[in-house]
Amino acid sequence: MFNKSTKAALLSAVIFSAAALSSAQAADLPGKGKVIKAPQMGGLCVKPAASGPASTIPQIPAGDIFGFSYYTDTGAIGDCGVALESTTRFGKANGKYESFGLKTQFYATLGNNLYGAASFFTTQHNVNTAAVGVDRNRVELDGVSAEVIYRIVERSKTNPIAVSLSLEPRWNRIDALAGGFVTGYSNEFKAFVDAVVIPDKLYATWNVFYGLGETKVTGAGTKFTKASYINTSAALAYQVNDKFFVGAEARYLTSYTGAFLNNKAGHAVFVGPNFLYRITDNLSFNAAWTPQVSGKAKGVTGDNLDLTNFERHQVRVKLVYAF
Predict the structure, then answer these.
(1) 65-83 pLDDT, tens digit each
(2) Integer Cα distance of 289 and 279 in angstroms
(3) Burial of 40 (0-12, 13-18, 19+ CB in 10 A)
């Protein structure tokens, strides 16, 4: 399990999230958007009868219209669905490197502005490269995670911005970089801020992720090593019509040793396009591609990319069925 330093980091992050939630609830100021109170709970996958007229406040359309980046919407009470999310990472400094991950997720809106999800992961590594020092090609069950998202600020007639906080703990048994067997525990704390720039046309989002955890290689006598990161991203999405959205996204990814961002191992900037297509009212497909455009790994000279901690390309495709 987590040692004292990692537990302290987790506690600090939880306290920070709680403080942000409390301050947002206390700051119900004019013109600053509707701040959320305690959620009204509903039955799992049971939609209540409609009551009253539909809201006229412009909203961001449901779906992953921002690529890798997330939006704040948590759905309506009774919403449920299944998502298949595939992330492919390929390209290292030397040799062949391909990593394929599949996240299978069941999600549900548990109450007003409250969303929950449970996921399990499968990974494939096709690796023959000096960058990670292994020769491997296999498919493995990776691990499981659970996520809760709570929207703390809602859009209003005078405020186009919404804010949500998220926590996703995870257990994993496969090393994300090299594909070896490990025992790993991690937590990811997330904040999403999005806005309706032009109603029914243009939308924007900004994300901040803080992740920390510890991992040990499977085997006798091995010890846990700690790592952490802060990732940020910003994205725009343009609504071509009711079914099709196109956009662009920029992501800044970092890697640190230690749970408290102790020593920076590297960073990278990824920029690329994305799109979403609504196949039916219940089924949607989206894809995002972000190649690395700049980066730096600690101790590596002469390169303008970080191909030690990250890859040349990251691609995500996602199929979502809502019911």
Answers:
(1) 999 999 999 999 999 999 9
(2) 20
(3) exposed
Joined tokens for residue 211:
């992740």
Mean residue pLDDT of the chain comes to: 87
Alpha-carbon span 13 to 202, nearest angstrom: 33
Segment 304-313 shows an average pLDDT of: 94
Residues in Cβ contact with 85 at an 8 Å cutoff, skipping those fewer than 6 apart: 102, 103, 104, 105, 316, 317, 318
pLDDT score at 81: 96
Between CA 277 and CA 199, with CA 164 as vertex, the angle to 5 degrees is 50
The rounded distance, in Å, linking the Cα atoms of 253 and 269 is: 6
Taking the C-alpha atoms of residue 149 and residue 147, their distance in angstroms, rounded to an integer, is: 7
* Whole-prediction pTM: 0.85
d(CA 185, CA 279): 37
Pairing outcome for strands 283-297 and 263-278 = antiparallel
State pLDDT tens for residues 137-164.
889 999 999 999 999 999 998 899 999 9
